[in-house]
Design brief:
The chain is globular. By secondary structure, it is mainly alpha-helical. Helix 12 crosses helix 14 and helix 13 (about 300-305) crosses helix 14. The protein contains 14 helices and 3 strands. Strand 1 (about 175-180) and strand 2 form a beta hairpin. A 3-stranded antiparallel sheet has the order 1-2-3, with no helix packed on it. The protein has helices at about 15-25, 30-50, 60-70, 75-90, 100-115, 125-135, 140-155, 160-165, 215-225, 250-265, 270-280, 285-295, 300-305, 310-320; strands at about 175-180, 180-185, 200-205. The chain folds into 2 domains: about 10-115, Tyrosine recombinase, N-terminal domain (DNA polymerase, domain 1); about 125-170 and about 205-320, Intergrase catalytic core (hpI Integrase, Chain A, Orthogonal Bundle).
């Protein structure tokens, strides 16, 4: 969604006004901009079907839109659409009044009546990760998947970060540096670093050969003969390696496919294995590292540093999950 910026626009300043609009467009992540643009279009179509103006829209129309979709859209989606509508109005210089008690009370009622806890994907704990990667064959796709899963887990990467890694340094790209002590993942930009300051994440050698992210990554590069470009790439059924990077959705599919294979190896039926795998996603690597580390009493500040959280309370959610049974009062009650 384009963001309008008002600047004086005499002939000599027009170029700066155009640049200001371009920079304003970059103030949010690309995924957020696409989502907001889609949200605004959905609201405009709804208004057009009812003969209501969408810009500027009346608070009553916005509230009616929220009510009309309260049973068909999740509250988190409605919340994002409301934010998009507000931002569109502010960018266009319109004041959308949503602070009245009637609006606030109705919106609060919608959230209370239809709000649900977020459905979180299951963390891939270390013990489950070991079983999963053990099922991967010693083939080109198997080596790629092993390296992708282990590096993503050890570096606590988001799936988009993992998919975007490159073998060597390139301006504006995330890349992996090989050092004697392990790997260093250099991130150019991340979800919590929209200003692009970057971050360095250390990935040490694993204590087990089968689950060592450093050895697995190097084995994949050697097998694929990669010296530059994307680190993780598609491989077709003939064994040909692509030139582009895998997508972030491909990362999720690789995780799910590997978990499903492990479940089948453990004796699950095909249907049970599919259902179990569906509980995991790309984020399961990141949350799995945090939760597993917390279960093994890793310091909270170290977990926060690896996850690159700005706020510790975000990290503490993973720590609570990993330590549910650590010094649990119920376990000390003599039951």
């Amino acid at each position: 969604m384009s963001t309008e910026v008002s600047l004086p626009a005499p002939t000599g300043l027009q170029a700066f006004a155009d640049q200001a609009r371009q920079y304003a467009d970059q103030s949010r992540a690309a995924n957020t901009r696409r989502a907001y643009a889609s949200d605004v279009r959905a609201f405009a179509n709804w208004c057009a079907a009812r003969g209501e103006p969408s810009l500027p829209a009346s608070p009553a129309a916005v509230l009616a839109y929220l009510i009309d979709h309260a049973t068909t859209l999740k509250v988190v989606t409605l919340q994002r659409r409301l934010a998009a509508i507000r931002e569109q109005h502010a960018a266009a210089g319109f004041d959308l009044e949503t602070s009245s008690s009637a609006f606030r009370d109705t919106w609060r009622g919608i959230k209370r009546a239809h709000g649900q806890p977020a459905v979180k994907k299951r963390p891939l704990m270390t013990v489950d990760l070991r079983r999963a990667v053990a099922t991967l064959p010693d083939t080109l796709p198997g080596r790629r998947d092993r390296a992708l899963i282990l590096v993503g887990f050890a570096a606590a990467l988001r799936r988009s970060e993992l998919a975007g890694l490159e073998v060597t340094r390139r301006d504006g790209a995330a890349w992996v540096e090989e050092r004697p002590d392990g790997l260093v993942v250099h991130l150019a930009r991340s979800k919590t670093d929209q200003s692009g300051e970057g971050a360095e994440i250390g990935v040490p050698y694993g204590s087990n050969m089968e689950t060592c992210p450093v050895r697995s990554y190097r084995a994949w590069l050697n097998a694929a003969h990669l010296t530059e470009g994307p680190a993780f790439r598609p491989i077709d059924r003939h064994g040909h390696i692509g030139t582009e990077a895998v997508t972030d959705r491909a990362v999720a599919r690789i995780v799910q496919r590997t978990v499903e294979a492990a479940a089948l190896a453990d004796g699950y039926s095909p249907e049970e294995a599919r259902q179990l795998a569906a509980a995991y996603a790309g984020h399961s690597l990141r949350s799995g590292l945090a939760t597993s580390a917390a279960a093994n009493d890793a310091p909270g500040h170290a977990i926060q540093r690896q996850l690159r959280h700005k706020r510790f309370d975000t990290t503490s959610g993973y720590i609570r999950s990993g330590q549910l049974f650590k010094q649990n009062p119920a376990g000390m009650a003599g039951l």
